[in-house]
Specification:
Structural class: mainly alpha
Membrane topology: Multi-pass membrane protein
Strand content: 5-15%
Largest sheet: 3 strands, mixed
Shape: elongated
Radius of gyration: 31 Å
Protein name: Chloride channel protein
Family: Belongs to the chloride channel (TC 2.A.49) family.
Main location: membrane
Number of strands: 15
Strand order of the largest sheet: 2-15-14
Low-confidence stretches: 1-30, 196-206, 650-656, 745-765, 775-780
Oligomer: single chain
Subcellular location: Membrane
Number of helices: 27
Length: 792
């Protein structure tokens, strides 16, 4: 994937280079530039996770004391608290709204069908259609970025790619109200969270005390907290949310972030628990004590025998096959939908969602009508489940189109119901033979097809709950055959439904650790932990044979260039120089004319430019990297323009550098300033800019013959956007070992903990003495040297 990006970047650079006037100052021989920069045609842009240690940054850091460090850490924890509270309240609102809409809908329909099933069917279709229409209208007209699950976009953001619009406030609002309409409307999809980061200048939420969170690095931490909080709120699984963020979406992790993410998930769990306690007092309408996705099976199967491992392993194989097939089918359908259907405009998207809503309503209402009712089982003295249940009340054994009182419709029990209640029925214990194999197979085929067709429509859509529905259906089907084969009384079909749900999620999403913990947390049963681990490992292994995970496939369809955890095998045979190509690198002189900067920015879409200068003996020297966004800020502000092409004396007191470091930050999830938005007069175009105070003087550099595999790992693990490729160095200034990085106070016993040093270290004091005799040039940082060398 990376090699393709490099080849595409090489081609675009070659076209841009052919359109530029070539000069000796504009060409840089013997060096290359690797980047993940993508064009605006794909609607994505790389993020700058690297710290730009320019003069403005160093000045700002020098003014900050220990009090600011403590304050900054406190603000980060405060934001984690706000994210946890906000996500928990959003989840409570969504679940209460969905459950009340569903409760009112089913209560009304059950009252109507007592008189006329035809009228009940029409009302049922119209209610679902109205809810789905509200959802798709919000998405198409108000928040297009809220469509889908949002996980591929968030995964791309944490991987270093910004998809415009995913972190805007309107996206959060669209996600909340769109989920209420789509899930309440009965579509074959689930609720999915999307994190949001505040402080956008677009909504006038900027503040001086928030300036420390304008960098992409700090936003990455907030988005990670929001991602974990969303999963924790959806499943009441705080530990599972943390592991989901770690395993599935993040490309970079550290221990400090782990603490904040776990704190955020814990706050979500507390908020959700408090809301559930308040709703138990009948303050939430139809919500009652349910609604949040948790299915307690602690009173289910007590133990399992060795003979059951074979059918359980079979569930894992089925999950891997069906999960891989689901990924492939959704890829085909999504590609066709994007290439042919959605290109026709928002009106077609609305028609499509409404048509799928009508189809889903007809199937969920009509298929149970074709199923013969089943007599209720003989109730034991300790049997607490009512059969049949009263109309409009959630539970097992639904009386739907039955001629007798003591009968129930098993297909309506899972079809004509909310997904949460249907899963609860499939997971339920002590309900052997509640569902027939024919009904389960019918539901599996129809719901599987509906899930494939619905996935990719212009509504908020999660895949966790539909995946659990599909997996629990064939898991319960395998459980029926197991019960009939082994003739044991202690086998529960609900246990196999749980294993089926885990296997399908593992076969589709290819997660193991986080899914295992989530399934344990939502079922409240640790006894089945080894079995869940078994089916997850099998399903993931089977699915990996055919294709990649669901979110990776969807990210590729959306044009999000993810850097996977492992480089391709072919990269071992290539070098960094080969990845760069043979084109000459477009560079800038240290003092550049404003007209030249405007010409370069208009003629290409590069986001980083090497800056070159000349030493005293006339040798050309690469002094750093200048970002396109920083050039646009300088052009827009105009305060650093100068009349002379001579480098400025920034540290000599002649004039101060006015822009602070926070002014160079890109707005949240937007394209920022464009060259077309900047007005420059003819006098402005004749002026100059000294780029030395604003460039990154210490970009990451690799030798040209380094293998592309090592380059890939370095690029991804450091979260880089640009990487210089230079010729092999002619000399070594020194060697850094582990001890050089352990900065701590020396004690009398420090000698006993010293690590083995290299022979180069023994020359350190000699180098320092010789440097002092030569004026200290070797010890002075490059940036400071550039800013003061013209004062001599």
């Amino acid at each position: 994937m990376l090699s393709n990006l490099f080849e595409n970047g090489t081609e675009s650079a070659r076209v841009a280079w052919s359109q530029l006037p070539h000069s000796d100052e504009g060409e840089l021989d013997g060096a290359g530039l690797l980047s993940t920069t993508t064009s605006d045609r794909n609607g994505v842009e790389s993020l700058d996770y690297e710290v730009i240690e320019n003069y403005a940054y160093r000045e700002e850091q020098a003014q900050r004391g220990k009090l600011f460090v403590i304050f900054n850490a406190g603000v980060k924890w405060f934001f984690a608290l706000l994210i946890g509270i906000g996500t928990g309240l959003a989840a409570v609102f969504i679940n209460i709204s969905v459950e009340n809409f569903a409760g009112w809908k089913f209560a009304l329909i059950f009252n109507i069908i007592q008189k006329s099933y035809l009228a009940g069917c029409l009302i049922y279709i119209l209610i679902n259609l109205a809810l789905v229409f509200s959802s798709v209208y919000i998405i198409t007209q108000f928040a297009p970025a809220a469509a889908g699950s949002g996980i591929p976009e968030i995964k791309g953001y944490l991987n270093g790619v910004d998809v415009h619009g995913i972190l805007l406030f309107r996206t959060l609002i669209g996600k909340i109200f769109g989920s209420i309409g789509s899930v309440g409307g009965g579509l074959a999809l689930g609720k999915e969270g999307l994190p949001i980061e505040g402080g956008s200048t677009k909504y006038h939420l900027s503040s001086r005390w928030l300036q420390g969170f304008k960098s992409d690095r700090d936003r990455r931490d907030l988005v990670t907290c929001g991602c974990a909080a969303g999963v924790a709120a959806a499943f009441r699984a705080p530990v599972g949310g943390v592991l989901f963020a770690l395993e599935e979406v993040t490309s970079w992790w550290r221990s400090q972030l782990m603490w904040r993410v776990f704190f955020t998930s814990a706050i979500v769990a507390v908020v959700v628990r408090m809301a559930m306690g308040w709703c138990k007092s009948e303050n939430c309408g139809h919500f009652g004590s349910g609604g949040f996705i948790i299915w307690d099976i602690s009173d289910g199967q007590e133990d399992y025998s060795f003979e059951e491992l074979l059918p359980m392993a079979l569930i894992g194989v089925i999950g891997g096959l069906l999960g891989a097939l689901f990924n492939q089918l959704t890829t085909y359908v999504t590609r066709w939908r994007r290439n042919y259907l959605h290109k026709k405009g928002n009106r077609v998207k609305i028609y499509e969602a409404c048509l799928i809503s009508v189809l889903t309503s007809v199937i969920s209402f009509g298929l149970p009508l074709l199923r013969n009712c089943t007599p209720c089982p003989d109730s034991d003295p300790g049997f607490e489940i009512e059969c049949p249940r009263a109309p409009g009340v959630d539970g097992n054994y639904v009386n739907f189109y039955c001629s007798k009182d003591k009968e129930y419709n098993d297909l309506a029990t899972i079809f004509f119901n909310t997904q949460d209640d249907a899963i609860r029925n499939l997971f339920s214990a002590k309900t052997i033979h509640e569902f027939s194999a024919r009904s389960l197979l019918t539901f599996l085929v129809m719901f599987y097809t509906l899930a494939v067709v619905t996935f990719g429509t212009a509504v908020p859509a999660g895949q966790f709950v539909p995946g659990i529905m599909i997996g629990s259906t064939y898991g319960r089907l395998v459980g029926i055959f197991t019960v009939n084969h082994y003739k044991k009384l202690n086998i529960e079909e609900g246990t196999y439904a749980l294993l089926g749900a885990a296997s399908f999620l593992g076969g589709s999403m290819r997660m193991t650790v986080s899914l295992c913990v989530i399934m344990v947390e939502i079922t409240n049963n640790l006894k089945f932990l080894p079995l869940i681990m078994l089916v997850l490992l099998i399903s993931k292994a089977v699915g990996d044979v055919f294709n990649e995970g669901l979110y990776d496939e969807q990210a590729r369809l959306k044009g999000i260039p993810l850097l996977e955890s492992r480089p391709k095998y072919e990269m071992r045979k290539r070098t960094a120089r080969e990845a760069c190509g043979n084109q000459k690198v477009l560079s800038l002189p240290r003092v550049v004319k404003v007209a030249d900067v405007v010409s370069i920015l208009r003629s290409n879409e590069h986001n980083g430019f090497p800056v070159i200068d000349h030493t005293r003996n006339g040798e050309r020297l690469v002094i750093g990297l200048m970002l396109r966004s920083h050039l646009l800020v300088l052009l827009h502000s105009k305060i650093d323009f100068q009349h002379s092409p001579i480098p400025c004396h920034s540290t000599g007191g002649s004039r101060a550098i006015r822009p602070n470091f926070s002014e160079f930050a890109k707005p949240v999830s937007s394209k920022g300033i464009s060259i077309d938005d900047i007005y420059l007069s003819s006098d402005d175009l004749e002026m100059y800019i000294d780029l030395a105070p604003f460039l990154n003087p210490s970009p990451y550099v690799v030798p040209e013959d380094m293998s592309l595999t090592k380059v890939y790992n370095l690029f991804r693990q450091l979260g880089l956007r640009h990487l210089f490729v230079v010729p092999r160095a002619s000399r070594v200034m020194g060697v850094i070992t582990r001890k050089d990085l352990l900065i701590e106070e020396e004690t009398e016993n420090s000698a006993t903990m010293e690590l083995q040093s290299t022979s180069v270290r023994g020359q350190r004091h000699e180098r320092r003495r010789s440097a002092a005799e030569n004026g200290g040039d070797l010890e002075r940082p490059l940036l400071n040297g550039l800013l003061v060398q013209h004062q001599r």
